[in-house]
């Protein structure tokens, strides 16, 4: 890469970082973030760039981020959490989702909010493995999982 190309790439990155910084405006208090008492899907925004776009889910917050893969014909336990809410974004195949009393097939690109203390589950009735991006808001601890039903008797 030439010096000019490197300089242009650095300038593009600095411009992106500068624009990104000014577009991000939290709408919630620190306590709402820490307690998992907010719906972060309200804060998602898409920023257009000459090279495409990016979708921002959180900015400068303490969160736990996972990618969960659910194999065909399998599902996670029906569960709830006292100390965190979760935001899921379906990545590649439809995923069967239950949140509270509602059950549906969440499509790729769909974002789902699971409020703190709500009963929830994800599963895959399709023929290919499916992935979700999970962002946990609030205190994260695997011991905070209360399993109400579990196919694997945990």
UniProtKB/TrEMBL annotation:
Domain of life, per lineage: Bacteria
Region of interest: Disordered: 17-38
Mannose-6-phosphate isomerase type II C-terminal domain: residues covered: 47-150
Signal peptide positions on this chain: none
Matching InterPro entries: Man6P_isomerase-2_C (IPR001538), Mannose-6P_isomerase_type2 (IPR051161), RmlC-like_jellyroll (IPR014710), RmlC_Cupin_sf (IPR011051)
Regions of compositional bias (Basic and acidic residues) in chain numbering: 17-31
Protein's name in the database: Mannose-6-phosphate isomerase type II C-terminal domain-containing protein
Species the sequence originates in: Terrabacter aeriphilus
